[in-house]
Amino acid sequence: MIAVTVRRLHDIGKSGFWYFICLIPLIGSIWLLVLLCTDSQPGQNQFGANLKGYNN
């Protein structure tokens, strides 16, 4: 679960250390949920290409 969350944070251009914000009761969990629901960075980042809109 932690690895998937950190990969998603990398996908939106945030550091994996943002995961630790969930240690703050209530507010941290809500903020992490907001971060995880945001759109990915447009184009390619250092972790790979953005696959949104990829057509087969």
Automatic annotation (TrEMBL):
Which UniProt keywords are listed?
Membrane, Transmembrane, Transmembrane helix
> Could you name the Gene Ontology cellular component terms for this entry?
plasma membrane
Going by the entry's taxonomy, the superkingdom of the source organism is recorded as: Bacteria
- Give a yes or no for keyword Amino-acid biosynthesis in this entry: no
Which stretches are transmembrane? 17-37
Q: Which residues form the signal peptide?
A: none
Q: Does the keyword Transmembrane helix apply?
A: yes
Give any Pfam family that matches: DUF805
Q: What is this protein called?
A: DUF805 domain-containing protein
Question: Which species is the source of this protein?
Answer: Clostridium butyricum
